[in-house]
Amino acid sequence: MIENLRIVVSRLFVIGLFAIILTSSSATGQRWPLMGETLFLSGVFLAAIASMGRLWCSVYIAGYKTDVLVMQGPYSMMRNPLYFFSLIGAIGVALATETLIVPLIVAIAFAAYYPFVIKSEESVLRKLHGNNFKDYFETVPRFIPDLTKFVEPDTYVVKPRIIKQHIFDALWFIWLLGFLEFIETLHVLDLLPTLMWVY
Predict the structure, then answer these.
(1) What is the pTM of this model?
(2) Binning pLDDT at 50, 70 and 90, where does residue 149 land?
(3) Is 172:93 a contact under the CB 8 Å cutoff?
(4) 3-state DSSP helix/strand/coil percent for the chain, to nearest 5?
């Protein structure tokens, strides 16, 4: 139920944000081209980190999400690495719009919405895994990585049929960068109207 609600709300937010992107152009990039390009390059860098990070998480979590309490790899440093990398990717894609307002909107929306999702998932994990989750909860930070806690096994069983879908999910950030460049070109060629300028 919570997972379905999260997906619906996330999609509605993305649709609203892309409506803004489709009808606007970057005032920052227009006035200060070097700053615009720096924002875009920063966005590409963050989107790449996010894609790799989500792939790394998927190696550990794909096919194990509810059956096993995963506490190794990225999950040894923080309890919600998928959301951590998703935030990095979302801000990266937002920076690639060459604006400052869009990344700010993304960060505020994430801060307002995802703590509720995380707490709801923690409550499910507490019921499923009891004292194991209690110990994990008390020793591993929720969202900010603690590198000193990093634990990685020599071998790990991966479920390839399940991980395939996760690979495509992780690449969305990269695909969105290409989409943003395409939209910007349509604006430059006046094939899409610019109804507003966004800093």
Answers:
(1) 0.87
(2) very high
(3) no
(4) 70, 5, 25
Q: Which of 117, 45, 58 lies closest to 88 in space, CA to CA? A: 45
Kindly report the length of the chain. Answer: 199
126-138 pLDDT, tens digit per residue, is 999 999 999 999 9
Instruction: Check residue 166 and report its DSSP letter.
Output: H
Tokens for 16?
């609203």
Tens of pLDDT along 80-127?
A: 999 999 999 999 999 999 999 999 999 999 998 888 889 988 998 999
Amino acid present at 12 = L
Strand partners, 151: 73
In 3D space, the residue among 83, 39, 57 whose CA is nearest the CA of residue 177 turns out to be 39
- Strand boundaries in the chain, DSSP class E: 24-26, 196-198
Of 82, 93, 58, nearest in space to 165 by CA: 58
CA 112 to chain centre: 15
Plot region of 145 (φ>0 → left; ψ -120 to 50 → alpha; else → beta): beta
